[in-house]
Amino acid sequence: MKGLKKFSAIIIIIGSIIIYSYCLAETLTQNRFESSGLKEEEVKSFFLAIQNAVKNDNYSKLSKLISYPIKLLNNHGHSVKILDEKDFVENFGSKFVDSKWKNIIVQQRVDNLFSNWRGVMIGSGEIWFSGLCSNKECSKYEIKIIGINQSARSEYNGKDSAAKPTDDVVIANTATDSEIYGKWIITGHEFAYISAMDDMEANLWKGKKAVYTEKLAVFDTESCPNPHYNVMPVKTDGYFQKEFNTLPSNLGIYAEQVTIIEIKCKKQAWNAPGSFVVRISDKKLMTLWDGVFFILTPDAEGK
């Protein structure tokens, strides 16, 4: 009987070791960048190529890792469209790179890279890269840089934005949903770091209209009867850095305070364009969709 118990104990121990080894192997082989559609080794290899090029100021080498055309966003809210490798080499180093931006790339560790469906992010969005399909079936892809942005840690209004707290960005609620009541029309757009749309696609949204009232919310062909407006005044700088990894100035927003308004339909989420609104002033709203901040202004013709 003692021999049987000892044998059973050995079997249990062996079984536990096998299960532990299997779980450990699963953990070790888990791809941290699966959400981006890229393999861990190719992410590491591409990242090190970027890091080496930036460290050595080799913009010719860096230019070959980019998908063109590409828009470079600086920390003053202005963008520069770069058409090809030659254009990049001639304009990038002298007009875009500063010591803070360079240090963020050089000091980035591969095990701290962030990834999602958009791709892989270096720093706080200073560089984004992703796999771009090489054929219609997307069975083959090529990894390229798809976004380059000046650091949110660079100077902003003469102060170091990184020193500002990103917690406690909500301020006393004195706003009301009626602040956006009326008829609005899209007149432009701004990109943050990366978007599912390109500039041409975003331009097609110009002229789309929105209506917000107590009893109805409408955006283009989407409507929401008896809407509920969740109103939240926030400190602009802290909110946009925390939620979108960007400075509000990159989106042409310079007000110290804005109001975030989320619209629910019959107490349920309204998953449509126009359901998330940034009220900047009486004359300007923004709504976010597919990574694009669309600008809405009062619709004079709709009054």
What proportion of the residues is helical, as a percent range? 25-40%
The CATH C-level name of the largest domain is Alpha Beta
**Largest sheet properties:** 10 strands, antiparallel
* Proportion of residues in extended strands: 25-35%
Cα shape: elongated
Number of strands: 18
What Rg is obtained from the alpha carbons, in whole angstroms? 24 Å
Question: How many discrete structural domains?
Answer: 2
Give a written overview of the molecule.
This protein has 303 residues and is of the alpha+beta class. It has two domains: 34-157, Nuclear Transport Factor 2, Chain: A (Roll); 177-298, no CATH class. Helices cover 27% and strands 32% of the residues. The protein is built from seven helices and 18 strands. The strands form three sheets. Strands 9, 10, 11, 12, 13, 14, 15, 16, 17 and 18 form a ten-stranded antiparallel sheet that branches. A six-stranded mixed sheet has the order 2-1-6-5-4-3. Strand 4 and strand 5 (127-133) form a beta hairpin. The radius of gyration is 24 Å and the shape is elongated.
Describe what is shown at a glance:
The protein has 303 residues and is an alpha+beta fold.
Features:
alpha+beta; 303 residues; 2 domains; Nuclear Transport Factor 2, Chain: A; ten-stranded antiparallel sheet; single chain
SSE layout:
Elements: H1 2-29, H2 40-55, H3 59-63, E1 70-73, E2 79-82, H4 85-95, H5 99-107, E3 114-116, E4 119-122, E5 127-133, E6 141-149, E7 155-156, E8 159-160, E9 182-191, H6 199-203, E10 209-212, E11 216-219, E12 222-225, E13 227-235, H7 236-244, E14 257-265, E15 268-269, E16 276-281, E17 284-289, E18 292-298
Parallel strand pairs: 1-6
Antiparallel strand pairs: 1-2, 3-4, 4-5, 5-6, 7-8, 9-10, 9-18, 10-11, 11-12, 13-14, 14-15, 14-16, 16-17, 17-18
